[in-house]
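Subject: sequence -> structure tokens, single chain

Hey, anyone have a minute? Need the predicted structure for the following. Not urgent.
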Amino acid sequence: MTRKIRWGVLGAARIAREKVIPAMQRGEFSQVAAIASRDPGRARRWAAQLGIPKACESYEELLADREIDAVYNPLPNHLHVPWSIRSADAGKHVLCEKPIALSVAETRSLIEARDRNRVKVGEAFMARSHPQWLRSLELVRSGRIGGLRLVAGFFSYFNRDPNNVRNVEGWGGGGLLDIGCYPVTLSRMLFGEEPLRVLGLMERDPEFRTDRLTSVMLEYPSGQCVFACSTQLVPYQRMQLLGTKGRIEIEIPFNAPPDRPTRVLVDDGSSVTGDGIRAEPLPACDQYTVQGDLFSRAILEDTAVPTPLEDSIRNIAVLEAVFRSARTGQWERPVL
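Reply:
Had a minute. Here:
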């Protein structure tokens, strides 16, 4: 019988209830063994609905449970580092939702906790492990589109609920941290480089003070990335990779559906009408199942987690630089 990592979940966030927990329950190497909430009734209710064996009446109770190997942390952004550190100090491995921290300094404290406790800690960038992105990366590295010069994208949804954590500035709300982090991490992956400097333009909600429309330019040694993200526009997402000889388009780059195939569109550039586009279908998969199993295998086999903190801190440095640029109106360099 395959050994499974026993996971505990901190809180009953929507992403955990609707996406991550059901996906991990289908994993080959992952078992969701417990869920905790500061509201005991809420923990019992969701444990019953999701078929989770144990409901913990507090986060502390879950962390003290010796039968839990690893913790999934989907708490609001400002609680990512504090509770991930407490989890590591309890001897648990940690998979934490993105953005894993609100600053480079916070990320350094988490790295210290990981090293001090000799546990594995990683950021939940599920898209990076989806086959459509692995195939796109393979196509770029093979030279199919020539030299990669431009990564361009857009990601938006509409949410003006004042009670939603994404609209609370002090909790790390706003578009850049919630969804702008995806084009940053994926463009870094595709170029295999770090941005030299960044430029950011932000429009903030007059009531929430969170960034509701952010446009970004990243200058890499080999090319550029440009993207916009918004929390108050029509739901939409798309990513394009433009090279000297061709183009790749990812149709649903971030929220790939788990129940139907995805497509990577490869354009040889022979016609502006699209005659040179060839679609590469990829079989359906749940990227949250893949993410959970990859992390569980990293624990079982003592290998690197999919998105380690050494990568996360570089991503956070870029996001910090974008915020600085939006304030100064100038190009800013990421600082580790």
